[in-house]
Amino acid sequence: MTLEILICTIDDGICRVGQMLLEKSTGIGYVVSWQQTEKCSIKEIPEELRRDDVKIVTLRGKGLSRNRNNAIQAATADICMIADDDIRYTPANINQVIETYKNHPDLDVATFKYHSPSSNKFYPDHSFNLKDEVKNYYVTSFEITFKRESIQGKIKFNELFGLGAPVLGAGEESVFIFDVLKAGLNCQFFPYVIAEHPGLTTTDRTASKSGVLMARGAYMSIRYPLAICIARAIAISLKLRKKHSMSFMHALRYTLKGISYGRKHIKK
Predict the structure, then answer these.
(1) Is the N or the C terminus of the chain less surrounded, counting Cβ atoms within 10 Å?
(2) Whether 28 contacts 80, CB under 8 Å
(3) CA–CA distance, 211 with 248 (Å, rounded to integer)
(4) Residue-level pLDDT at 206
(5) What percent of the chain lies above the pLDDT cut of 90?
(6) Which residues, in sequence order, are CB contacts of 259 under 8 Å at separation 6+?
(7) Is pLDDT above 70 for 260?
(8) 0.85 exceeded by pTM
């Protein structure tokens, strides 16, 4: 069973990717999707990435979901892991993913845990199917792995969501999992750490930004009926006020705005 880590980076972030690479190992590879804007000052592939287990594909413009889709399209391994350019792995992390798929051959998508000294993210202590909603659990992008043949050419990251998208600055991983489940695929969580992240995620750091709040609302708009969306918008705004010390009305305003945007622009 082969595995590829799909690393998305943009502009000069390509210089960070070399720090992610492990010693060469049979059946383990990397796909680096290097998004380039006019701000990119790096013109050549860094020397440390010139390895036969590293494939680099480029993409003009911006949009993290576009970049994720570009990496998925270039993948060739049996199993793929979603990654950013600041994630760290160990051989044990990779082996854990491979063993999980070997032990559960009917899996299409598996999510796991990551460790960060700056995060107190909640995880259940047991495995469960992601169609069963567990309170306080949510998916982070670099916890996602999948069987390539189940996803490639069939399910994409929604390019209206995510960092660099036109309006909605987050939420692409939640929508991806929603689409996976809607397609009837077997998607499960496993309580094993597969990655290390050095700090807060982008969504945590930018929780009060309008595009992040709107993304929450837009995701709700495709998952729940309108009445439930409004009730959840109020509850989430109260929670965000406490967790991030932001204005309740600010959070509610943009969450509701996101619900409206989602109902208008996103197909369920």
Answers:
(1) C
(2) no
(3) 16
(4) 80
(5) 86
(6) 217, 218, 220, 221, 226, 229, 230, 233
(7) yes
(8) yes
> Tens of pLDDT along 224-249?
999 999 999 999 999 888 888 899 99
Block residue for tokens 């700056």: 118
Cite the DSSP H helix spans in the chain.
64-74, 91-103, 148-151, 172-182, 202-205, 210-223, 226-244, 248-265
Residue 129 dihedral angles phi and psi, to the nearest 5°? -75, 135
φ, ψ (nearest 5 deg) of residue 20: -85, -20
pLDDT band of residue 202 (cuts 50, 70, 90) is: low
- Which residues make Cβ contacts (< 8 Å) with residue 163, sequence separation at least 6? 63, 64, 169, 170, 202
Mean of the pLDDT values across residues 183-210? 88
Neighbour count for residue 248 (Cβ, 10 Å): 14
Contact present, 121 and 25 (Cβ < 8 Å): no
| Structure tokens that stand for 19 in this block | 């720090």
Neighbours of 216 (CB within 10 A): 26
Burial class (CB in 10 A: 0-12, 13-18, 19+), 79: buried
Mean of all residue pLDDT scores within the chain: 94
Residue 200: pLDDT over 80 = no
Asked if 83 and 142 count as a contact pair (C-beta separation under 8 A), the reply is: yes
pLDDT confidence of residue 128: 96
Write down the residue that tokens 């369920």 correspond to. 268
DSSP secondary structure of 146-191: EEHHHHTTT----TTSSTTSSS--S-HHHHHHHHHHHTT--EEEEE
Instruction: Give pLDDT, residue 247.
Output: 94
